[in-house]
């Protein structure tokens, strides 16, 4: 099916008069007190913040005027990179003078100047950056057009409309033409030690062109959907780039989703072809991906959506052709056809607002949402965020541990790095296979300088002996990064102190599938960091914290995180459901994009993400709708009803806690518990498996039948003293029954 185009603070002590960081001054920060004549009372500071409400970044700018808001700075330590350990939760971690002097953004003052321009002159700011890319035709006089207020009409966002470009050309051809043809584009590391490969930019371009020519030959045209269900082989970014080259819209599905989930996505976008491989090894386990695809295609055909071709890569390290089930006339071996095609392919030039990809993300209604990103704005934004958030240099070797089945793999494995001509490491296997030192072995092997991973992996590796880290050099590391969920301060400090030897700044990024790229992130050479804080907004981003009525809250506060105004990387719609797009993201707080996340801002203006506020659970960086899990559980013949909530998990950030009411007369048993978990694994995927099944004779409901999830969350987290008033429940005795069964 065609997819239509989208017609003073402590920082006063660290900023010198020139605006640069001053580690010498910062060293005595904990005891530095300004004279009373230079200090303001808390009420004065709050008033000042409120009177600056029209300012582009008032909470940051005020920090250059007043020292924290309360005068004395208590219990505050200053740490300079490479000189001492980060130990306390209120540490400020400063980049070294050497790092800052070479950074793209080297001081708070430079950051504020750039951010101020991006707010006051977004058209000029982003036009200047966009002009660094190749455009077959420049955009018109209007750089962007937006309406984020449902009260003023349909929501729409457009950037660089009328500009004609191609993101594959900018990722590959442009780099080759600039003399980077012999530079390594991809270092590929296999699941097993000693299995590796690489491609230069010239070689990558040739392989992309061969696949593009094949797709054109089988009838794939501009706007057609192509589903990609591949593990982390080099063929995955090749497939994405090949689709982009010919204007096809790729929909990458994480190769851990079940046949049911894959079928759901196939039915929604109706692809011309699906690209997969026969199997993959993750750690010691072999996963037969082709069998999952076969089941999904059978299911989708029963629902009226048939896919004519299944192009299958022969991953001989995982299984053999002989052991791969085959359907003649539909299934085609990748290696039998692709190498026969020419190594050059004409580019399909597209409008900046033409679709680039669909990526399905979990929603609270049970049906995944097809997030649609377009070409031009996404290209400019991902390239720019990658460049500045990681302080990218042409000599860097970069590794992001994310899978391309998620937005991180789109923006920061494939597009963002390659638009900057970076050398990227792609790893097929599990990060702790065959042992917990594998990550650092790979870092040393490829001399990786930028390492971007999830807090889940950090917490997992923290549980093992430090020798797995210290037995490797890691001297090549320069910048670390965190993605997927808030990183807790203890994990941040372990990552900083042990992995980074107390010398590598951490880009703790906040963003979403919907935002396309980083929204709130440290810039490594500019700002002092606080362990666990995402720091300040990226250029062009104006985050606001609102209360439940949608009123903006000033100064130090907690509330709902929204964004005012559009940015180039923003998604344009939910595929086939613009009404849901508006209802989910723009109706909760009219005039703003609502992120669905809670957020706190401290007295220094630093942003701290507190997690989801809706019915989506963030498990190891994977957003899983509670309704999806509940639906899978309820499909079990012995399950009468289920309610799912998220709970804190030491390793995964959040875990899935399921309350299950069984059919009358069915006894509780371990065998049934395992069967329920298996039902979820089969319908959604192993990553969505409930961590706990809590037997529930009944669920706490209002008289109207609404399940009181607030109460379930308190029971799940054993915060029984915070249950609150339960007298309004239809049957309050259910709560005591659930508590009694809590440890059953």
From TrEMBL:
GO biological process, one term: acetyl-CoA biosynthetic process from acetate
Alphabetical list of Pfam families matching this protein: ACAS_N, AMP-binding, AMP-binding_C
Every Acetyl-coenzyme A synthetase N-terminal domain range: 111-171
Keywords: ATP-binding, Ligase, Nucleotide-binding
Chain residue ranges for the region called Disordered: 15-42
AMP-dependent synthetase/ligase domain sequence ranges: 180-566
Domain AMP-binding enzyme C-terminal, first and last residues per copy: 628-706
Family from the record: Belongs to the ATP-dependent AMP-binding enzyme family.
Protein name listed in UniProt: Acetyl-coenzyme A synthetase
Species: Eutrema salsugineum (Saltwater cress)
């Amino acid at each position: 099916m065609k997819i239509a185009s989208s017609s003073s603070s402590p920082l006063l002590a660290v900023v010198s008069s020139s605006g640069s960081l001053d580690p010498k001054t910062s060293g005595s920060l904990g005891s530095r007190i300004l004279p009373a004549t230079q200090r303001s009372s808390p009420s004065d500071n709050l008033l000042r913040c409120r009177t600056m409400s029209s300012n582009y970044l008032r909470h940051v700018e005020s920090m250059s005027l007043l020292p924290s808001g309360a005068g004395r700075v208590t219990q505050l330590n200053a740490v300079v990179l490479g000189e001492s350990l980060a130990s306390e939760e209120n540490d400020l971690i400063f980049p070294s003078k050497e790092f800052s002097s070479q950074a793209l953004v080297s001081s708070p003052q430079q950051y504020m100047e750039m951010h101020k321009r991006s707010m006051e002159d977004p058209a000029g700011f982003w036009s200047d950056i966009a002009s660094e890319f190749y455009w077959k035709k420049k955009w018109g006089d209007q750089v962007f057009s937006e309406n984020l207020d449902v009260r003023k009409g349909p929501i729409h966002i457009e950037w660089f409309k009328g500009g004609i470009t191609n993101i594959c050309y900018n990722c590959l051809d442009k780099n080759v033409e600039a003399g980077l043809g012999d530079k390594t584009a991809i270092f590929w590391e296999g699941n097993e030690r000693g299995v590796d490969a690489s491609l230069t930019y010239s070689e990558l371009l040739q392989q992309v062109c061969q696949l593009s020519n094949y797709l054109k030959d089988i009838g794939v045209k501009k706007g057609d959907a192509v589903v990609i269900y591949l593990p982390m082989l080099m063929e995955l970014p090749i497939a994405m780039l090949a689709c982009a080259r010919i204007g096809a819209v790729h929909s990458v599905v994480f190769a851990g989703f079940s046949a049911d989930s894959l079928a759901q996505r196939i039915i929604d976008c109706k692809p011309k072809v699906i690209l997969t491989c026969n199997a993959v090894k993750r750690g010691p386990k072999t996963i037969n991906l082709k069998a999952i695809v076969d089941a999904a295609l059978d299911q989708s055909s029963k629902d009226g959506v048939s896919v004519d071709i299944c192009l299958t890569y022969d991953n001989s390290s995982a299984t053999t052709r002989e052991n791969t089930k085959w359907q003649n006339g539909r299934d085609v071996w990748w290696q039998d056809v692709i190498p026969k095609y020419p190594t050059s392919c004409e580019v399909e030039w597209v409008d900046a607002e033409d679709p680039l990809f669909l990526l399905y993300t979990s929603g609270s209604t049970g049906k995944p949402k097809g997030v649609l990103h377009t070409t031009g704005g996404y290209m400019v934004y991902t390239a720019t965020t990658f460049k500045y958030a990681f302080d990218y240099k042409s000599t860097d070797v970069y590794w992001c541990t994310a899978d391309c089945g998620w937005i991180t793999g789109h923006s920061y494995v494939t597009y963002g790095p390659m638009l900057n001509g970076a050398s990227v490491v792609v790893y097929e296997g599990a990060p702790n296979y065959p042992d917990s030192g594998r990550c650092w072995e790979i870092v040393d092997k490829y001399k990786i300088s930028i390492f971007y991973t999830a807090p889940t992996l950090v917490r997992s590796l923290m549980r093992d002996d430090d020798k797995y880290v210290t037995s490797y050099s890691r001297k090549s590391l320069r910048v670390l990064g965190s993605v997927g969920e808030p990183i807790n301060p203890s994990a941040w400090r372990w990552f900083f102190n042990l992995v980074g030897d107390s010398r590598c700044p951490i880009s703790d990024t906040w963003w979403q599938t919907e935002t396309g790229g980083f929204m709130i992130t440290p810039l490594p050479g500019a700002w002092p960091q606080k362990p666990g804080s995402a720091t300040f907004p990226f250029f062009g981003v104006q985050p606001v914290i609102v209360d439940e009525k949608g009123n903006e809250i000033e100064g130090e506060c907690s509330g709902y995180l929204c964004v005012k105004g559009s940015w180039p990387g923003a998604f344009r719609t939910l595929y086939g459901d613009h009404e849901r797009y508006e209802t989910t993201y723009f109706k909760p707080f009219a005039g703003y994009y609502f992120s669905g996340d809670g957020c706190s801002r401290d007295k220094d203006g630093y942003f701290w993400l507190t997690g989801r506020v809706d019915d989506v659970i963030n498990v190891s960086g994977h957003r899983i709708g509670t309704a999806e899990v509940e639906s899978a559980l309820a499909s079990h013949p012995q399950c009468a009803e289920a309610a799912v909530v998220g709970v804190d998990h030491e390793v995964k950030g959040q875990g899935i806690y399921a309350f299950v009411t069984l059919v009358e007369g069915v006894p509780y048993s371990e065998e049934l518990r395992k069967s329920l978990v298996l039902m979820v694994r089969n319908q959604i995927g192993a990553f969505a498996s409930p961590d706990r099944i809590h037997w529930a004779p009944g669920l706490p409901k209002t008289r109207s039948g609404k399940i009181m999830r607030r109460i379930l969350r308190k029971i799940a987290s054993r915060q029984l003293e915070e249950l609150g008033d339960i007298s309004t429940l239809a049957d309050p005795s259910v709560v005591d029954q659930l508590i009694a069964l809590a440890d059953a």
